Amino acid sequence: MRADGSCFCITDHFSPENANDTAKETCLNWFFKIASIRELIPRFYVEASILKCNKFLSKTGISECLPRLTCMIRGIGDPLVSVYARAYLCRVGMEVAPHLKETLNKNFFDFLLTFKQIHGDTVQNQLVVQGVELPSYLPLYPPAMDWIFQCISYHAPEVTASVLTWGSVSCSALLLNSVMSAFRAEFIATRSMDFIGMIKECDESGFPKVASPFRSLGLNLALADPPESDRLQILNEAWKVITKLKNSQDYINCAEVWVEYTCKHFTKREVNTVLADVIKHMTPDRAFEDSYPQLQLIIKKVIAYFHDFSVLFSVEKFLPFLDMFQKESVRVEVCKCIMDAFIKHQQEPTKDPVILNALLHVCKTMHDSVNALTLEDEKRMLSYLINGFIKMVSFGRDFEQQLSFYVESRSMFCNLEPVLVQLIHSVNRLAMETRKLMKGNHSRKTAAFVRACVAYCFITIPSLAGIFTRLNLYLHSGQVALANQCLSQADAFFKAAISLIPEVPKMINIDGKMRPSESFLLEFLCNFFSTLLIVPDHPEHGVLFLVRELLNVIQDYTWEDNSDEKIRIYTCVLHLLSAMSQETYLYHIDKVDSNDSLYGGDSKFLAENNKLCETVMAQILEHLKALAKDEALKRQSSLGLSFFNSILAHGDLRNNKLNQLSVNLWHLAQRHGCADTRTMVKTLEYIKKQSKQPDMTHLTELALRLPLQTRT
């Protein structure tokens, strides 16, 4: 605090010359008051806490105080209290004078001298009085010891580290463990064999003399590699000791760390040996039930290093190791880890029976965990992992084996709808691949196989819950059947889709929110109409039987009161019927004769087509009249213009009735001033432009009959 009341900060470049006499006198007064404290421990901690204030008094104040405070700690008789006092002094020393390493080393050597008191009569008697067991007492030391060692090892030269390690460990497991926790992993790894020798010589009751140091050594070896020539010897020497551990928790804590070292530097043979040893230790008395976290880490480390799953599953003890996960939730998590690794690292499709059998078992475990309480997010995750596996299975040109795999998968994963959907898509792709590869060679065997694929889809789709999922799959599967010249099967798919439409609810659940279904139904029907153009009529069911059935369903469906979706669908039907009246259709499927080939422009077919057009148009006009009664004039204007555009694009305006209807619709769109003038202007400009085409001269007269309404 300056004389004017302001504060100043003690920076690294601060010197006593920067402080005035008042500040120095105040600071000195503080230290005199601290010196008058009679109790040793309070006096030590208070002085250590303001050690940095020595910069007010002299440049050498801190370097003089640190050794004195170090000696002061020698007066603390309790070794546990003294080690925490030294840890605090090391912390303060690193903050105010990190270059003064001698004080740190002195604290370390003083600690070594007092550490021997733990086994002295004084400490032992005190523990008896307080009712504290040695195994509970000794673990109180490592936090302070670790801090002291970390301070010493910070930027410590190799010589200093070696002297501290080899000359001061005194074969104490407690000290050795702290040394390996504090020093750099590279330093420990290069001297692994020396540390193993010291761990073996440790003899200290009350502390896990082998488990904790070996775990610390294993953690260092996971971060830094030992000399290549020592690697096998390190594993052999370490595992000889680890495998003799009687306490299952001590054993698994060590084994879990050393598994990574084994996977990192050795082959599946050594990994298999380690896994077998873990099974041997953890199976008796079901010890594995208390060690699921460590066992999970072992699995994660193994799959992190074995990306080739043919090698992984050839490890004899890998699957028996998985059997130790008896708790369902834990077992499922482990299976998810395995499948996630497979999806990430499997680059090429596989048909390896070892991989397939193992992963089918893993996926079945995940699937069987699904019940009524399973969250949707969890179902999505499990489906994603199982689908990832299914996509990576390929038997090449052995299509029958591929289909057999899909059949088996369907029976195993029947409770996850996204998996069934994936299987249906996969079978449809299989049918199309068969068609491509067997092109020009349509044998009975090939046809039978395609029909088997089609039957698979037809049987599976009804088991799905989502109604639009079923509709779209019926349509897609029907398209595949049609592409493979399976006409009766295609008809069956399309009929199934038509019969399902009445079941579409008014509201459907989309991502947890209820949404109106009519827009989704409109989208589906538009796709359906595009397919129906090329579907040939069945000889026993009359002309356009599928279109008629679909129109009946649309007519009977209960639409929302204020909805115009029905009319939009009817408009799409007109587009379909217009395309069906052409001499040659816009597109075809290879080796499938559509109605343009079957009827060849037959007058009876065209007459039936026209009747359907008139029926649909009557429905549209009736709806437009009803909108006028309901005073829904804006909707009437919009629908009227849309109907006009459909007639313009798909109708023959040389027909007088159709020409007059288009004029009436144009006037209707503008009648109540609800039309978009900009749209009307652009539409009229388009008609005038088209009238200049050689075969479109009749549009010139039409354009003259379409006035634009002016607004005043």
From TrEMBL:
<keyword id="KW-0967">Endosome</keyword>
<keyword id="KW-0653">Protein transport</keyword>
<dbReference type="InterPro" id="IPR029705">
    <property type="entry name" value="VPS35L"/>
</dbReference>
<protein>
    <recommendedName>
        <fullName>VPS35 endosomal protein-sorting factor-like</fullName>
    </recommendedName>
</protein>
<keyword id="KW-0813">Transport</keyword>
<dbReference type="GO" id="GO:0032456">
    <property type="term" value="P:endocytic recycling"/>
</dbReference>
<dbReference type="GO" id="GO:0015031">
    <property type="term" value="P:protein transport"/>
</dbReference>
<comment type="similarity">
    <text>Belongs to the VPS35L family.</text>
</comment>
<dbReference type="GO" id="GO:0005768">
    <property type="term" value="C:endosome"/>
</dbReference>
